[in-house]
Structures are given as structure tokens and as C-alpha cells.
Amino acid sequence: PLEDEETRGKAYIKLLNEKTATRFNRETLASWKYDSNITEQNLEEQLKVSTESAKEAKEDWLKTIKFDWGSFSDYDLRRQFKKFSILGRSALPEEKFLKLEKSISDMETIYSTAKICDYNNKTNCDLSLEPEITDILATSRDPEELKHVWVEWRRKNAPARELFKEYVKYVNEVAVLNNFTSNTAYWLHNYESSTFVQEVDTIWEQLKPLYQQLHAYIRFKLRQRYGSIVSKRGPIPAHLLGNMWAQSWVNVADFTIPDPLSQSADITSEMVKQGYDATKMFKKAEEFFVSLNLSKMTPEFWEQSILVKPNDGRKLICHASAWDFYDGKDFRIKQCTSVSFEDFITAHHEMGHIMYFMQYRDQPLVYRDGANDGFHEAVGDVMSLSVSSTKHLKAIGLMDANTPDNDAVDLNALFMIGLEKIAFLPFGYLMDKWRWGVFDGNITSDDYNCKWWEYRTTIQGVEPPVDRCEEDFDPAAKYHIVADVPYLRYFVSFVIQFEFHKAACELAGEYDPEDPTKPLHKCDIYNSTKAGEKIAKMLQMGSSRPWPDAMEVLTGQRKMDASGLLEFFRPLHKWLEEQNTKNGAHIGWEPSQKKCM
Ligand SMILES: C=C(C[SeH])C(=O)N1CCC[C@H]1C(=O)O
Ligand SMILES: [Zn+2]
């Protein structure tokens, strides 16, 4: 009878969680070994472990689906069985499984080992994305050099096109084997809402006016700086925005900041001056979490993490990442850290992942995940919103303590955060919009690249510095595309992190909607154990309940909405509108004149 089966099911799922944690630990150790040291042997070992693991997963899955778990009375038991009943990639027959794993690791290896030649010294062809090319895009003000690195990086990644086509075929097969219509539906089921894409579209429509104001202002300033290569009314040339993907504009702050006279020395030079190194950056990030009464990093974290690019000549994947080894104590970050404010923020971002891993480590394995993927990306960023406030930068000595506490200084700080957060939104939106089109078959391999540029020009308002064609494959210039990492999580994160920040700031007594002397953008939750307590409670839930239940614990709300972000940037929005009116800047952009054949 059912109650015996439900009792048996409880015992079964407990063992399955423990067995799966051990298997995930073995898999993750093999992946770490390859990602942190790209060699044929480490790849072979990694493929062997994941193939072995897939076989075990399938055997377990065949037992799991035998239970009539849908009729169990216990919600939690049903939820665990439901999650385990989705087998994932292990559903593929072995040789296709291997082909899929290999196509992804081959694409990632092209990306992680690609090098280009130096524009100013053609004999040096040893420039990697991190740190060399990233630094050039951040600091060069020579449009020809910027064009060179932009085009060359894409030329070196175009060979991923054929591998990507094969990847699309196999991930769609995995989706169908798991009873999803395509990989799009498989990715979206993480958000447990049949209307999630509509919710995202609605939020983007609410945020577009703010983005258009920032875009108009930045285009005006770039035209002042670079002249007619920046048009008055067209999209912004993507290579001039200080970032390989134009997804963050913080590196053009020096000539666009609202009040240059009130701008303190840029934080990066302060960090260099004060002898910051990678370890100090991560220790500072840990200090922030500990100030909220959240956990310290484990000894294994400091022993096993890779916080600076190894200089022993090895090849590795430098894209920053945080790792859970599913044993409750081994948690690591791999980041090729440069001493810069941008990387200081990323350090907080990655440590936010580690914090989440630690907070939910006592959950059953199947719940050791974000409430949705956006939650996982938001944790560290919530801390960074406080760290980036003038109040905090002064408190940790990265901004001169004598800097006056006035609106001009606060507007500069708000502008800096806007160059990161507002600029990102259309990019965070279009990355998966394009991939959903590809997985659903609406975008065929004949128009991968020109559809990509259609979205980039119409949604993000940026254009390539030179004409493009279908032989190019510009999406592969972005890590997440070649590494099979969904991207909607970052758009979701950039919206909900302001809801979390707003709730945390109220708990910390740092923000009061009725008190104009406590606006949201001046809030710093540092040392607020009250805020920390609620954040911890939300994180401890992992994915044990649908994400609105987790959000409700911290914010009292159950919906993703843009009001927190719009409230945070209200003063900047007003200032941008005034500036654009004063400058007669065109709002929005006309179609690009660049070709894509
Ligand atoms: C830092 C990470 C590792 Se989860 C990252 O990929 N991010 C963080 C912000 C957006 C996205 C990107 O770099 O494109
Ligand atoms: Zn992340």
C-alpha cells in the first residue's frame, strides 16, 4: 500500500542524496583538475569520470522513477523525487554523451587558450584575454588599437562555429529525452514559472527608458572624445565601451563621470597604491560577509583556491568561477585576479556563491542549489552594492576620508554603479534570447551571426566597428556561449539584487522610503547582523521551496520586479534626463549602417 511505499521512498531518497553527493564530489574534483590545468591527460580523466558518473546516474534514475512519488502525501518528498526524476545529460547514449562533453570542452579550450598579436608590436602574439586584452580594452584610448583587439579576439574564436552547431543538436536531444520541447524549456524550468519569459520581457520594458537615457549620455560623451566615428543618432561602436562585450561601461568613467572635480582618485589606483594583492581583496570580501555574522571561508578554501593566474606556463580556464565539492567543507574560487576595483567587485560576486554553498550545505544534495539561478548570481552583488557606496569606500580607506559628503560625490558613485548595472541589462537579456532562438530552431546556423547583430543593434544599441558576415561567429567571443552556461540568471540577478538590497537596507536602518536623508543609493549594510540574519535564512533554504517562498523570507514579496532598481537609480535617472536635454542628445538609436552578409 502507498504509505509503506512512501516510507520506503523516504529511506530511498535519503540514501540517493548521500550517494549522489559522493558522485558529484568525484565529478567536480575531475572537472576542477582539467579547468585549472588544460592537458590531454586531464581531459581524458575528466571524460572517464563523467562517463562513469552518467552510467551510475542512469541506473539510479531507473530505480527512482519506479516509485509512484506523484501520489506521496509529503510535499518535500515529492519535490525531491521530482527533481531526481529529471536525469539530464546522462540520458544520452554513451557515445553521444561523450561527443557533447567533448564539443563543449573543445569550445572552452579554444576560448581559454586563444591569443592575439599586439597592435603596437606585431612580433608579440602572446596576448591572452586575461589580463592583457582586458587591460587594453579598459585603458587604451586609441580607436584603431581597440578595433584591432576587438576584431582579432573574434577571429580567433570563430572556429567554434562548427562545434557549436553540434552542441546545439545534442543539447536539444538531451532536452527531448527529458520530456522538454527544446533546450530552451529545459533551461527555463529552473524558474518554475510558465510565464517567466513574459515576466522578464515586462521588466525589460520597464527598464528600457533608464537604459536609453544612459546610452544617449554615453554616446554624446564618446562623440566628444572620439569624434565622428561615434554617430549622433546611431548605435554606439562596441569597441569603445571599455569591455570586450560592451556589457559593462565602468572603464569609460574617467571621461564621462558627472562631476570630475568631485571624483576622488579612481579606486583601482588607490588599491595599487595601498599594496592590495588578490589575497587581500578576498580577505576584505570575507570581512564584509563576516560583519553580517555570515560564515568565514573554510581552511580548504584558502588552501585549494586559485586566486591569481598561475605563471608556470600551464593552460587553464581563467573565467572566474566558484566551486562546491558537495562535502560540506571543500569550497573553492578560481579567478585570474588583477588588482582592480572591477576584480574586487568580482571577488565579492564569487564569494557570494561560496556563501550560498555554505549556507545550504546541510540541505539534502538535491536542494543544494539557488532558489533559482538568479539568486546564486545575486548574493555577492548585494554585498557589492554596499561596498561601492561612498560611505563604505571611505570606511575601508579606498576613498579619501576628507572627500565631502555631498550630492556631487554621491552622484559620481551612483553613476559608477550605473555603468555596471544599467549598461548590463540589455546584454543580460539578449544573450539567452538569441540562444532560445537557436535551440527552438527560429535562428538557423545560416544566420547565427547576423541575427546576433540584429539583437545587439536593436536591443543593446551597439554595433560592430567593422562589417560582419556569416563566416564570423561573434557569439563565441563570450565565455558563457562556448561553456554551455545559461545567462538569463544574470538579468534576473541584476533585477532581484536591488529588491534584496532594499530589504537588507531597511533591516539595517540604512534606508527609509519616508526619510530623504536615507536614500537607497547611500545605504551600506556593513556590520548589520539583522540584515545578515534574514539573508542567511533565505540562503539556507537552497532550492527546497519555489523561489517566491525564499524571496519572501528576506523581502516579504513574492515577485521579481524592477522597483528596487528604479528606486536606487532615481537620482541618476533624473540627472541623465537633464543632461540629455541640455546637450540636445538624441534618445534611442537608428538602425546600424554596418553590414552583416
Ligand atoms: C563572474 C562571473 C562568473 Se558566475 C560571470 O560570468 N559574470 C558576472 C556578471 C556577468 C557574468 C559575466 O562575466 O558575463
Ligand atoms: Zn556568478
Structural overview:
The chain has 597 residues and is mainly α. Helices cover 58% and strands 2% of the residues. It has 23 helices and four strands. It has helices at residues 2-35, 40-64, 75-84, 94-113, 129-139, 143-157, 160-177, 183-188, 196-226, 267-273, 278-291, 299-304, 341-359, 373-387, 390-395, 407-439, 448-460, 479-482, 488-507, 529-540, 547-555, 563-568, 570-583, and strands spanning 236-237, 321-324, 331-334, 462-463. The strands form two sheets. It has a two-stranded parallel ribbon. A two-stranded antiparallel sheet has the order 2-3. A hairpin with a 6-residue loop joins strand 2 and strand 3 (331-334). Helix 2 crosses helix 4, helix 16 packs antiparallel against helix 17 (448-460) and helix 20 packs antiparallel against helix 21. It is globular. The N and C termini lie far apart (65 Å). The model has no long low-confidence stretch (mean pLDDT 97). Seleno-captopril (SLC) is lined by residues 247, 320-321, 346, 349, 490.
Low-confidence stretches: none
Instruction: Bin the strand percentage.
Output: under 5%
The averaged pLDDT comes out at 97
- What strand order characterises the main sheet? 1-4
Question: Quaternary arrangement of the chains shown?
Answer: single chain
Q: How are helices and strands ordered from N to C?
A: HHHHHHHHHEHHHEEHHHHHEHHHHHH
Helix fraction bin: 55-70%
Overall number of strands: 4
Largest sheet: 2 strands, parallel
In DSSP terms (H or I, runs of 4 or more residues), the helix count works out at: 23
Helix vs. strand class: mainly alpha
**Termini separation (Å)?**
65 Å
Q: Over the alpha carbons, how many angstroms does the gyration radius reach?
A: 24 Å
Given the C-alpha coordinates, what overall shape results? globular
Ligands and ions found: seleno-captopril, zinc ion
